[in-house]
Amino acid sequence: MGHMRFSEPARAFGFAESVAISIVIGCARRSLSLDLRRDMSTLSYRSSPDNGLSFDLLVDGAALGEVLGDGNEGIPYWIVEEDLPYWPPHGSPRDPDYRIVTVCSCGECGCGHSRCRVTKTADSVTFHNFAGDVGADCMTRVFTFPRSDYDRTVSGIVAEARRQKQRDGEQGAAPNGGPATSDGNSGVTEGRHR
Question: Which of 42, 75, 121, 154 is most buried by its number of CB atoms within 10 A?
Fold first, then answer.
């Protein structure tokens, strides 16, 4: 079965994943079925010990903060709940589709972050409408991933964040302004970051 790649404008119109084409050769009509796939990026993550534990989202193997050029890094574990963190991470009102995707190296999303609208379908997840620390040229970027990449990435992040939160409950407060951190224990609240 052949594969064909769509151009950017064709992908924007959401052509079907598969299509049957009828070809007339001379007087004989032949049917040909092609498997047409939209180009999708890959989504994964890597953990780092920054801020106790942080998660860098990787798009095609590159850190999203680097791809966006926003100067931010991974998402600190303490703002992770059941999915990528909402914006704002705590309180309301929250837009259920806007998620934090990078955070300042100090670990405080109020200091700096990037967020985007996350649109989920049965087969894919799209990051679009970027805001926060991204430059104007990156606000219109669009990344589409297989739904399985997104689900696997988020499941891994959530599981690691839960384990770290359990350790914090046994050992004390999280670093850099995480939950239950006293002002004296947080470089963020004392202005010692970046």
Answer: 75
